[in-house]
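Summary for the funding panel

The consortium committed to producing paired sequence-structure records for every protein in the target list. Below we show the first two records in order, beginning with the earlier of the two.
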Amino acid sequence: KQLHLMHSERFSGQVKHDFIAYAFPTSNRYQWGFGLLRVAVPDIAFTRLSDPGAGLSETNRPIVTSIETSADYAIYFSGAKRLREHWSVGTSIKIIYRTISSYQAHGIGLDIGSHFLLQPNLRIGLILRDATNTTIHWNTDADDKINPSLILGTSYTIQPFGGRTIIAASTKGGRSANKNSNPFPFSASIEHTHNILALRFGHEDDQQNIGIGLQPYPSISMDVTYIQHEELDSTYQLSANISF
């Protein structure tokens, strides 16, 4: 049984990202879990023209009518099953709710994943996100669609210097909102753990990440991550795991 907590100040606090999840086994083959995600952008200025009936001009400028927060929520209900000793599959049903001012939207999505242990030190994972073309319905009768995306990842573990080193890489395929973005972004990372300390370095989409992990007790671990961004400010992420 494990409780996971995460808080992130993305782009120096412009985006607040929080996540809490709890997972528990019911047998040696079945695992279940649920989670709550919130992503919010505060301090958005809503404006209108001083004279809404006239066009924009030097004497008819926008004025701020309210300060709003845009927030996305998702509730996850997850389950996983070990099909064979080295092969597991899982799925998550997610209920999505979005709100900003008087506008609200909702939708339901499905994620599917699989995990393969090819050798004691070699793993492969697959995730198909939004497998059913997640549709978000707004109260303005408009719809947003989240297209499916496929993530492939692998990791290899070695044990040098009396510790443990994990080398990982992943790529993602799927339609992006940015037409100029890389259709198959690649990321690579390395983690070395010795006693209670873990050091992590990563590279993703020309951005560098660095992280530190501490596990002062067998049932408690804490992590902090710094994520670089070329155009926006940097991101800090804090997380913790508590096992029961």
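The next record, for a separate protein in the list, is shown here:
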Amino acid sequence: MPKNEKVYKFEISHRTIIFTVFLILSLRFLLIIKDLLFSLFIAFIITSALRPILDRLVRLKIPRVLAALLVYFSFLTIFVGLLSIIFPPLIKETVQLSRNFPSIIERLTAGFSGLPYSFFNWQSLFQYIPTASNQIFNLITRFFSNTIWFFYTLFFSFYFLVEEDAIKKILANFLAEEKTERIIDFINLLEKRINNWFWGQVFLMVIVGTLTYIGLNLIGIKYALPLAVLAGLLEIVPNLGPTLAAIPAILIGFSQSPFLGISALALAILVQQLENNLIVPLIMKKAVGLNPIITLMALIIGGKLAGVFGVLLSVPVVVLLKTFFLDFLNKK
């Protein structure tokens, strides 16, 4: 070995090894209890949405437990009632649409004999739509059939409502009073943000879905209910969602007649203009403002990491991270 050549030695300390092993085990543990984490986070979202109503009842001198029962079971009754009204016809029309969609595409492309039509096999492209629809319904069925998970999620959310200082009492056993108060301040701010986002998003979805349903029925387009539900659900994706929701309605409209296709396009433009210039400013003015690109990235990442649950919880997770890094740490 030449005398001037340097020898580099890489040493890994015991502390680094222990930290790496601990990190790997922690990630593994979180993966094992992911269902519990989903349950707790969903319970926190429900609690954040219902707590302001509960606080109003408590200020009216109603006992907290009784007020929590009234609020919670009213929420569940409305939710289950809406599902029982909407779900049966929604399933029926969605199955019909999935079965007829290939023939709709065939009618739309029947006049085209050039390369675009000959290159694509539309029938094979859309033959998997009924299977995809069945998978979606099976997923929803599994969600509600997982009785244990469903009920302990309801229990967690009800417990968080009844116990006003439950988290504070738990933290007080492990942390100093000052740190406990700081974490409680963060949780209170996060609850307010989640509440604003939740109800703003719910009202926005309901209004857009209702306007779409009324408009599609007025102009006479088939499958109005699943198309309206799709329009409402895709409101969670800013900017891109309304455009994606309009495409199936326009295609179905053109499959019936050129006039209905143009009418569906005009309806989509009208709803989007009302949404951008009137509905969103009125309803979402108190909600947490999130960059559309960040929201879209969060939805994609959430879907890749945790499927449907990841998509549903991606925006609240972004709200949590934004509140922690941009507000809590800056204030600290």
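Regarding this second record: Residues 72 and 137 are 27 Å apart (CA to CA). The two ends are 55 Å apart (CA to CA).
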